[in-house]
Design goal:
Blueprint lengths: L1 H11 L3 H29 L6 E3 L1 H16 L3 E7 L7 E3 L1 H18 L3 E10 L4 E8 L6 H5 L16 H11 L3 E7 L3 E9 L8
Parallel strand pairs: 2-4
Antiparallel strand pairs: 1-3, 4-5, 5-7, 6-7
Helix pairs in contact: 1-2, 3-4, 4-6
Length: 202
């Protein structure tokens, strides 16, 4: 109701300063809505229902979900997915949320134009690797230390639950997540998933 009334004020107000006040309210409401959405997601991933699944299929679905966020930016998403990827036990819904959060961060880190690369790779230690990299703004060392803090955000666009949710989901899949970043040079997020010996391939 706060957002609806503020929108009506913004649409009808002619006084520049009053119109700016209405926009401030609207922006705050949007941040609150995103915060509540993140909290709902966080509650929803407390338990994962694991069954054999194809990581590439989940990655492709997450990529499609993130495309509308690109908006007017000139961002190319380059996917290089392993052929015959081994299956492993996963919660497809939760895992897509985790990957989407990483992709969203990558897109938001690019100001106007750039590239987001998504790769699935095999590893010698019975793991399957998913790498998401971007050539966006990158992060300072201090920000890196707070990445998995549930309510930390460097963008001031809502609760910083995205990577916290991602971290928890990856852990529920017996996986690991590692983030490397440097200001002005982009960010690389590496996720590893354990593959049981003898797992079938897609």
């Amino acid at each position: 109701s706060i957002g609806g009334i503020a929108r009506r004020l913004s649409d009808t107000e002619t006084h520049p300063e009053h119109k700016r006040y209405a926009e401030v309210i609207l922006n705050a409401v949007k941040r609150m809505e995103r915060m509540m959405q993140r909290i709902d997601e966080y509650k929803g991933i407390i338990s994962s229902r694991l069954e054999l699944g194809n990581l590439n299929t989940v990655v492709e679905a997450a990529i499609e979900d993130v495309r509308p966020i690109i908006g007017d930016k000139k961002i190319e998403i380059k996917a290089s997915l392993l052929s015959g990827v081994p299956l492993f036990k996963m919660d497809r819904t939760n895992l897509k949320i985790a990957i989407f959060n990483v992709l969203q961060n990558a897109v938001e880190a690019i100001e106007k134009e750039g590239v987001v690369k998504v790769e699935t790779l095999p590893a010698s230690d019975n793991t399957l690797i998913l790498i998401v990299s971007d050539n966006g703004a990158g992060m300072e060392a201090d920000a890196m230390k707070k990445l998995f803090n549930p309510f930390y955000t460097s963008k001031m666009t809502g609760a910083g639950l995205g990577l916290t949710i991602t971290h928890r989901i990856i852990q529920a899949h017996r996986g690991t997540i590692d983030v490397e970043s440097e200001p002005g040079k982009g960010t690389v997020v590496t996720m590893k998933f354990y593959i049981a010996p003898g797992s079938s391939a897609a």
